[in-house]
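Review form for a predicted model. The reviewer records the input and the model, then writes brief findings.
Reviewer: anonymous (R2)
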Amino acid sequence: MEIIRREHFNTRTLVKVSILGAIAFLLMLFEFPLWFAPVFLELDFSDVPALIGSFAVGPVAGILVQLVKNILNLVLQGTDTAGVGELANFAVGSMFAFTAGLVYHRKKTFKNAIIGMIIGIITMTISISLVNYYVMIPLYAKLFGWPLEQIVAMGTAVNKYVVDFKTLILFAVVPFNIVKGILVTLATTLLYKKVSPILH
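Model under review:
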């Protein structure tokens, strides 16, 4: 696509991506749970630097920020999910940042940035819900030798509407990603104009 082809990844751009990725990693350390979601779903604001990179540099830059963030997390923090959690984080964050940046770069206006983030939230929520249902959560259960019912029970413990695997996705994963997307969108909206002159 033309927008993607126009992205130039010179040394300066890669430095920007690396710095944003490092900031995203630091933000990833400050996680907090939501009252309706199981413990393996925790919210952080590490997608904000990826969105800023996607808007300032281009949609592919948003994906690269997510990649740097998750590589740093694996190397420096390790993993207690056999890499599944990091893969899911990369996938969901990349869908959000790439979609929002793609829409914004078609016409760089504040309105388009908001539209891009809204479409990004919808795309992210639908995609990660399907990926979690068919791939991520079953893979996680298989790697750790857990029955799916044990993972569902984590959701049931905090959300009475979670009674099986489908309702875990519908009443925990879906609203979690919508709430996360809205909060990250608000934070990005407040911060982008302040930090974009530095990136440019």
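Findings: The longest strand covers residues 32-33.
Further findings: The radius of gyration is 17 Å.
Recommendation: see findings above.
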